[in-house]
Specification:
With about 90 residues, the chain is an all-alpha fold. It has helices at about 5-15, 45-50, 65-70, 80-85.
Length: about 90
């Protein structure tokens, strides 16, 4: 049994959970044994529900339709986007 499985079991037992806990990881690259999410969802909350039964990776694009996802994930890119969209100073 892995440490994660033991931790999940301990959490389920001590918190009397009806579903196992899920794990979230932020990575620069998708791990080799994890597939990318296939589909479109209206809100990032759907990922929490699906993660109860399957393992997958999401990208920033997967969160574009969700107001919370845009705020928490895509906002990290805004400084770069603003930098790219600036017009040269005209002096």
């Amino acid at each position: 049994m892995s440490n994660y499985q033991k931790l999940a079991g301990d959490l389920m037992s001590s918190l009397e959970l009806s579903l196992p806990p899920i794990a979230v990881s932020f990575c620069d690259e998708v791990p080799a044994n994890v597939s990318s999410f296939d589909g479109v969802v209206a809100a990032g909350c759907v990922f929490w529900q699906k993660a109860a039964t399957q393992t997958f990776a999401t990208s920033t694009k997967d969160h574009e339709l969700c107001a919370i996802g845009v705020h928490t994930l895509i906002s990290q890119l805004l400084p770069k986007l603003r930098l790219c969209s600036r017009t040269p100073d005209r002096g």
